[in-house]
Amino acid sequence: MVVEKHVETTGLLGWIDRRFPLTRLWRKHASEYYVPKNFNFWYFFGSLGMLLLVIQILTGIFLTMNYKPDSKLAFASVEYIMREVPWGWLIRYMHSTGASMFFVVVYLHIFRGLLYGSYRKPRELVWIFGCFIFLCLMVEAFMGYLLPWGQMSYWGAQVIVNLFSVIPVIGTDLSLWIRGDYIISDATLNRFFALHIIAIPLILIALVVGHIIALHEVGSNNPDGIEIKEKKNADGIPIDGVPFHPYYTTHVILGIGVFLMIFSAIVFFAPTMAGYFLDVNNFMPSNSLITPQHITPVWYFSIFYSILRATTDDFKYVLMAILALTIATWSIKWRVQVTTKIVRSGAGMLFLLAIFLMEAKFFGMLMMFGAVISLFFMPWLDKSPVKSIRYRPVFHKVLLSIFVFFFLLLGYLGMKDPTPLNTRLSQVGTLYYFCFFGLMPVWSQLGTFKPVPDRVTYRGS
């Protein structure tokens, strides 16, 4: 085990250390926190997420100084920020660009976890914290999207909030409670503003702190999926590890420098990104009497919106058949009789009947949320004997590549009109999305796996 060294500090730092463990925290989480030697560029995105969280909080504070959470004044206050407040346009564009870039970074961070098995033992809790951060970020972004009170803000919120009304028994009351009124109104704007600037950020910060503490407790994963804590020298230091500071703090600075150049280029030259970051309809004040020709979500929600739209009446029965097949496959694979007992019971029959009688819209909502919830179960769905994609069979890499393709396709289709062709493509993508996770306990064990080396290796991603 590593012997903690006690270094006596003097002066102002010593005075602080005797009252607050500043130096000890620095050593534990930076200068004496050992990370694998073979990190690559995929490991930039966790730090970039921290940077973007700071950017969003700081720019958000400045925006609230001039924003009016009033349905009659909100849009005008945003225009005032853009036109009259010194550098207000820059703060607003940094915030809007930061929201989209936050999701870019988070999606790439999640993909790195899928590549290298960062959700596997002993990092299950790290992964679960990360999934909660993703959920929280989606809620935060949705509520923030309403605040400009433009046409797409208003009608996008109308569609999503009304979606809750299809929930049996409690749906109508729940959607009324979320809105605070019978329609999207001033009450909705006020409560979303309060949640966006106070409640959700506090929860998000707490989750990020928990994510980092859990990570530093078990240590970072690496591209080889090798636990560096298992091989230590006489001083208890991992042989394949280096201190996070200064080795990876300088490494991260490189990533931050490149990222800020891209971020600045978008802010100054293409803040709307041709309508993907800021919809053209949101530059028009909301009007409850005029519905935009096409109501589409901002790009980072389009994947899940595409799944929602794909769930038509006929497609619902296909999904039910896939669900039944998945449950049967699990039962056979794990040699359990749970499924048979549930089906034979009266409660099980009622449950199956309730699913059969569900509205397609409600079933679609379940699928939309299920697409996010599926990520939580990754540590237990993946039964592969190795963590990293480097040592898995080729067809595992093919399956993951196809998953990425359909993920991007669903995102694209979610921003397009629901034509018959687009709907069919969305249904194919949705089927693959859920089969990828649902059948993972089976396919993740198949094939011939490469031997994992004893020590970390150095090569490309």
Automatic annotation (TrEMBL):
Transmembrane region(s): 41-63, 93-114, 126-147, 159-180, 192-214, 252-277, 289-308, 314-330, 342-358, 394-415, 430-449
Cofactors, names only: heme b
Cofactor note: Binds 2 heme groups non-covalently.
Domain Cytochrome b/b6 N-terminal region profile, first and last residues per copy: 12-224
Compartments, record wording: Membrane
Main location: membrane
Topology in membrane: Multi-pass membrane protein
Domain of life from the UniProt record: Bacteria
Cited PROSITE patterns: CYTB_CTER, CYTB_NTER
Residue ranges constituting the Cytochrome b/b6 C-terminal region profile domain according to the UniProt record: 234-454
Assigned protein family: Belongs to the cytochrome b family.
The protein, known as: Cytochrome b
